[in-house]
Model the fold of this input.
Amino acid sequence: MTDNENIVEEVPSIGAPSLKAGIEAILLVVDEPVSAITLAQITNSPEIQVNKTLKMIQKEFDNREGGITLREIAGGWRFYTNEHSGEVVERFLKDGQTARLTQASLETLAVIAYKQPVSRGRIAAIRGVNVDGVVRTLLNRGLIEEAGSDNESQAVLYRTTQYFLERVGVANLEELPPVADYLPNMAALDSIIDESIM
Done:
């Protein structure tokens, strides 16, 4: 046995049971299409092998005639709902508009209602948690809308909508119950929040 035969090249780990499993897991969590090059880098795999695996996954999903399909769009790959299932997805999304809000959504909506117009950063500072997902949900449900941007930070500002007023059962924001009874010393709270987001 020569010295060269003793050298074993260490292959970087994919980080998943297989390349197929790794690609499927990544594609399940992305918000926008991911290129084959990016998938190759993340999975430590040759791009040609990634492309073959993507085509194989696409074919498997198309052959099973399920509700999900894999598409290559805008230079990247992403899972989409199958167009033949569009009616049931649309019905679900519409029904979701009337579903109950989570505690996190209600708290975020209350902050926006009483502090509007307000930025995500300020909402997050008041709540003490990231609010990106919750704000998206409230936007999708039509309860809040963009209200321009902050002059200093250029952050997008949010306010409640007319639909929010209808759902709460008030004609205008002045009819909302006073919050001072529940949050004493609002001026002090505001100064603490302003310091924390600067």
Summary: The first strand starts at residue 68 and ends at 73. The mean pLDDT is 82. The CA atoms of residues 122 and 128 lie 10 Å apart.
